Amino acid sequence: MAQTDTISSTNADLESARRVLKTEADALETLADSLDGPFSAALDLIDGATGRVVVTGMGKSGHVGNKIAATMASTGQPAFFVHPGEASHGDLGMIQSDDVVIALSNSGETAELSDIVAFTRRHRIGLIGMTRRPDSTLAEASDVALVIPDSPEACPMGLAPTTSTTVMLALGDALAVCLLERKGFTAQDFHKYHPGGKLGQRLLKVGDLMHTDDQLPLIEANTPMSDALIEMSQKSFGVVGVIDDDGALAGVITDGDLRRHMSADLVNQIAADVMTKGCVSVQPSQIASEALAVMNERKITSLFCVEAGKPVGIVHIHDCLRAGVA
User: Fold this and answer.
1) One domain for residues 151 and 217
2) What digits encode the pLDDT tens for the residues 191-247?
3) How far apart are CA 246 and CA 131, in angstroms?
4) How many domains does the chain have?
5) Which of 51, 111, 130, 259 measures 20 to 30 Å from 283, CA to CA?
């Protein structure tokens, strides 16, 4: 192929790709501008239900529905996907009276959805229809109809589900995010549902990594430095915590403190004479990446974890690195 032909082919590909993205982006803008009362009503219906969200759809709408259900489930809203074909052969039993069903159909006339729609009507189960046609069977049967813009598909023949599925997916994301904001869903809550992978590593708590109980290097303020050195050596954190009479963390003794107080008389002193007062600490409920940031900023390798001022654990920078915290 000649170089000019290659360039021409590349330009045509890029022009086609940009047309697809522009078509779908325009539809998303239209969707954002069209949101009104039914969207809020759908949120109220889901938020007021005591059961789960059941998402269903056929074909490409089904694939989108699967993702919507997964997103909701991972952001604190119990949800799952039911295939309409399987529902007609026994899986209707998975849908309970306190659930809410979201049914996706571009045309609103998907025959495979009829059994689920009829089931929700018979048992007075909340039904949210997501469709392009406000006068469709699905829209008219629904308690709330979320009508997506009648925008052209990005496919040049106007047949392959492209724009319509993108808009449905985005509308599902909007529902999920609004619900998590209503519920006050936090990063700590998010970690409960994402313990694995990079996201799980980022959201690990200090309490998930800290060393506790007999592993804690702790001494009392009047402990002779000879014993403090033994405690530091045995626990291998390069630091020992000093507690007061109430068990609160009064200070720490680090390798640096030892160097600053190095003398022949060091072993005859007590911990209170050598310790650094007012040391920095973290709480077990804090995100581990925050503890790592503190250690990097202060150029230290360990942090005591305290609750109500009392040490309950210790975390080392290597604990964070081994867990993939960054």
Assistant:
1) no
2) 667 666 656 666 788 998 999 999 999 999 999 999 999 999 999 898 999 999 999
3) 65
4) 2
5) 259
Q: What's at 228, amino acid-wise?
A: A
Does the residue 197 lie in any domain?
no
> What is the per-residue pLDDT for 7?
67
- Does 138 share its domain with 101? yes
Report the 3 state secondary structure along the chain: CCHHHHHHHHHHHHHHHHHHHHHHHHHHHHHHHHCCHHHHHHHHHHHHCCCCEEEEECCHHHHHHHHHHHHHHHCCCCEEECCHHHHCCCHHHHCCCCCEEEEECCCCCCHHHHHHHHHHHHCCCEEEEEECCCCCHHHHHCCEEEECCCCCCCCCCCCCCCHHHHHHHHHHHHHHHHHHHHHCCCHHHHHHHCCCHHHHHHCCEHHHHCECHHHCCEEECCCEHHHHHHHHHHHCCCEEEEECCCCCEEEEEEHHHHHHCCCCCHHHCEHHHHCEECCCEECCCCEHHHHHHHHHHHCCCEEEEEECCEEEEEEEHHHHHHCCCC
Q: 267-303: per-residue pLDDT in tens? A: 889 999 899 888 899 999 888 888 999 999 989 999 9
**Per-residue b or e along 240-276, where b marks 16 or more CB atoms closer than 10 Å to that residue's CB:** bbbbeeeeebbbbbbeebbeeeeeeeeeeebbbebbe
Return the top range by mean pLDDT from 72-76, 101-105, 190-194: 101-105
Q: Are 166 and 160 in contact (CB under 8 A)?
A: no
pLDDT, tens digit (0-9, with 9 covering 90-100), for 33-54: 999 999 999 999 999 999 999 9
